[in-house]
């Protein structure tokens, strides 16, 4: 009997040792894919110049040639970045189900809840199209109204795809500015809305709706094989849906890059014009584009001399304060609360635009 007791822990420990032969092929495939990705990514500019100015024989300095070279370089660059980003984001998102997110936010006090909700909004897989079911689920499970708005603002505005694309295209400073200012807007707007106590402007049927899943405490636990599969499925789903917007955004950016004079863009969206920031916000709100599609436009605007604060305000209004999101939220919010939401978030975006134009 004692011998069995001594061998039993060893047997249990031995079963936890992973089989190296099982994972080795996948590790080799991942390394080969990473090497192929880096080889393609690092030679895109050389390929674009060869194709446009070498194979096609177009003259340097030509506007059309400049636009085509921009498109040939940026299209595969953004798509390659998207593949990596979406795969990684798909794995991260497997840890944050709607039920888990609601449990983390339920019962949180103001301020602390705004901070946590904004941070969760960065890594969770929700966009403006999810606004109504998320709003109902959060409010009916005890999440304060202001905390709910911090999450709903941060989730589409601080898009993780946009964040990584900004890092890849402009560096960590611009990406950091985007992340920091977006978080401040989400936290501040949610805090203000919470302090105003505007619950009476939520449609009455929302509070009468019982949250069906609140009583269910079961949640499937995923292994790493399932999480990797989730990342692969995210690539198939998201990239297949956004690539037309990406190419459309790059085409617009190519037109700006090749044909819009720098002096004109600097006069419209430069630091000198006080009205450039509110104009950028007003132009951005009616537009509907995902983050991946708007980034190439942002790049072209910056290259043409547009001010960073003005461009950031434009991008945030497109992603975080779009007209489609306002229309969707009308299903659960009355007009005074929608107007307050748009006004508070819009004021935050204006402050960001003017601040960065003044400082940088």
Form type: globular
Beginning-to-end CA distance, first to last residue: 76 Å
Please tally the helical runs, counting DSSP H or I stretches of 4 or more residues.
18
Q: Which structural category fits the helices and strands?
A: mainly alpha
Largest sheet data: none
Please mark out the parts with pLDDT under 50 across 5 or more consecutive residues, or reply none: 1-15, 210-219
Number of E-state strands: 0
| H-E order | HHHHHHHHHHHHHHHHHH
What is Rg? 24 Å
3D structure, described in words:
The chain is mainly α and 360 residues long. The chain has a domain at 98-209 and 248-359. Helices cover 76% and strands 0% of the residues. The chain is built from 18 helices and no strands. The protein has helices at 2-15, 20-42, 44-55, 63-93, 98-105, 112-123, 131-140, 145-157, 160-170, 172-196, 204-208, 224-259, 262-269, 276-284, 291-303, 308-320, 323-329, 335-359. Helix 9 packs antiparallel against helix 10 and helix 12 (224-259) runs parallel beside helix 15 (291-303). It is globular and about 65 Å long. The model is unreliable at 1-15 and 210-219 (pLDDT under 50).
């Amino acid at each position: 009997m004692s011998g069995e007791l001594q061998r039993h822990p060893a047997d249990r420990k031995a079963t936890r040792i992973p089989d190296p032969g099982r994972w080795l092929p996948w590790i080799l495939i991942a390394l080969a894919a990473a090497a192929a990705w880096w080889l393609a990514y690092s030679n895109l500019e050389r390929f674009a110049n060869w194709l446009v100015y070498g194979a096609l024989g177009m003259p340097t300095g030509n506007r059309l040639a400049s636009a085509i070279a921009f498109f040939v370089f940026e299209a595969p660059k953004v798509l390659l970045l998207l593949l990596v980003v979406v795969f990684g984001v798909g794995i991260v998102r497997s840890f944050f189900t709607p039920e888990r997110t609601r449990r983390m936010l339920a019962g949180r006090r103001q301020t602390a809840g705004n901070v946590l909700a904004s941070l969760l909004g960065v890594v969770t897989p929700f966009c403006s199209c999810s606004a109504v079911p998320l709003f109902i689920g959060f409010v009916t499970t005890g999440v304060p109204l202001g905390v709910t708005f911090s999450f709903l603002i941060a989730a589409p505005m601080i898009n993780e795809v946009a964040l990584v694309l900004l890092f890849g295209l402009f560096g960590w400073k611009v990406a950091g500015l985007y992340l920091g200012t977006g978080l401040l807007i989400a936290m501040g707007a949610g805090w203000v809305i919470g302090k105003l106590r505007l619950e009476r402007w939520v449609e009455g049927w929302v509070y009468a709706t019982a949250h069906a899943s609140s009583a269910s405490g079961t949640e499937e636990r995923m292994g790493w094989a399932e999480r990797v599969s989730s990342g692969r499925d995210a690539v198939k789903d998201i990239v297949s849906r956004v690539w037309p917007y990406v190419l459309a955004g790059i085409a617009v950016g190519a037109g700006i890059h090749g044909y819009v004079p720098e002096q004109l863009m600097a006069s419209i969206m430069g630091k000198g014009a006080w009205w450039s920031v509110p104009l950028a916000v007003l132009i951005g709100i009616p537009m509907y584009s995902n983050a991946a599609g708007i980034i190439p436009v942002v790049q072209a605007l910056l290259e043409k001399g547009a001010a960073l604060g003005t461009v950031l305000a434009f991008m945030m209004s497109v992603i975080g304060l779009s007209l489609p999101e306002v229309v969707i939220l009308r299903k659960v919010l009355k007009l005074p609360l929608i107007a307050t939401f748009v006004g508070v978030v819009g004021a935050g975006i204006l402050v960001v635009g003017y601040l960065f134009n003044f400082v940088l």
